[in-house]
Backbone:
């Protein structure tokens, strides 16, 4: 019963923030950051400020025009080449490894916070 009430509270709270974002013009992340409790010296704000200056630029996916036509509608997908259902295209795998490496580098300053947050979500102390 408590989990159900918690889920409803979270859902309604999210809708409230989304409504304020759309109507009032206050970005959702500002609402969420202002309502987060600061439990230790490490908060989301301090975790992100350490990474404010990117050390490298993110990888940029090349654009390859792929035209698809269905039911008389034509759609161009410049990133269709990234679709690799068999997960065997070395070019796609290489690009995804570059993206993962960049993400790991940019998020390295928040590893402790991620760990604490994950532990808190699981309910383990």
Residues:
């Amino acid at each position: 019963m408590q989990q159900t009430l918690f889920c409803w509270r979270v859902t309604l709270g999210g809708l409230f923030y989304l409504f304020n974002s759309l109507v009032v013009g206050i970005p959702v992340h500002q609402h969420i950051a202002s309502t987060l409790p600061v439990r230790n010296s490490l908060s989301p704000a301090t975790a992100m400020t350490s990474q404010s200056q990117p050390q490298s630029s993110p990888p940029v996916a090349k654009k390859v025009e792929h035209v698809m036509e269905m039911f008389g509608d034509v759609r161009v997908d410049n990133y269709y080449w990234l679709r690799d259902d068999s997960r065997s295209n070395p070019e796609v795998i290489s690009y995804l490894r570059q993206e993962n490496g960049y993400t790991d580098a940019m998020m390295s300053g928040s590893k402790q916070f991620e760990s604490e947050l994950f532990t808190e979500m699981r309910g383990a102390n």
